[in-house]
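Researcher: I need the complex structure. Ligand is fe (ii) ion. Inputs:
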Amino acid sequence: MKIAIITDIHHGSLSHTKDPNWDGLPALREFIDRAISEKADLVLDLGDHISDTTHEADHRAMSEVAEIFKAFPGLRVHVLGNHDVANLSIADNEAIFGQSMASSIIDLGDFRLIAWQPSVAATLRVGFPNAADHLDWLIEALNADDRPAVIATHVPLSGHSQIGNYYFQRTPHHSTYPDHTVVREAVEATGKAALWLSGHVHWNTVTNVGNVQHVTIQSLSERFTTAPLTAAAHAILEIEDGQFTVDVYGNDPFHVRLPFRKSGDRPWMAPMPPLDRIDPVLEAERLRA
Ligand SMILES: [Fe+2]
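Model: Output:
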C-alpha cells in the first residue's frame, strides 16, 4: 500500500519565509506525476492549499491547485487547512474540488484511513476552537472496525514541542487544538490508531505517544528549515509487513520506519504520579516488593 502525501502547498501570496520566485504549481504538478509513476494507491493532501488574501484571489488560487490535483486518476483525499477557510467557505472548497470535505473513512484493505476534519477556523488571538466538538464521530469511526487506523488531520494533535519552529515557538497554542490532550487520550483509549499524519507545523517530526505514531510532514513551499532553498517537500508512505515507512523527498529529507500496529496491541504503562505526590516510604516498599 503506497500513499503519496503533500501538505501546506500555500499557493498564492508570498509569506515571510517563501522564496520570492517560488511558484508552487509546477512543484505540485511534479508531485502528481510522481504519484502516478510510483503507482500510488492514493493521494493524501493535508491542507493549506493556498495562502489567503481575498475571497476572489483565494478562489482563483484554490481553483488552480484543484485543477492540478484532478490529473491524478486514482483516489484523492483532501483535508482543509486554516488558510483554506479564511475567506472561502467549506462549501466553496467542496465546489472547487468536486468532493465533500466532511470527515470520511477510506477502506484500504488491511487498514483504514480516517480523514478527520474538526474545524480549522483559527482566529489570531485564540487559535483553533476545541476539536472535541467532533470527537464523538472519530471515536465511533475508530470503534466501528478492528483494523488499525491511520488518522489524517491538518493540525497535529501530538502536543509535540514547538521549540525552534519559526511560526509556533512563540505562539505554540496556534500549533494544535487547545484540547489536544482530551482528543489524544480518547483516541488512545480505543487502542485502534496506529499512525496520525498531519501538516500545519511546516516541519518533519515523529512523536510516539502511547504507541500512536504522530508524524508531521514538511510543507511544499516552506524554507525556514532549508533557506535559501525551498523545501519542495512531498512524502511517500508505504505500509507492509507490519511496518510503515515515511520518506520525505525534496530539500528537507526525512525517513522514518516503525512498527505499524494498533496502539492497543502494545499499550504503554500509564504515567506515574507526580514525584512530589509519591510517599517515599510506600515507594521504597513498592520497589522492594
Ligand atoms: Fe500551513
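Model: Summary of the prediction. The longest helix spans residues 55-69.
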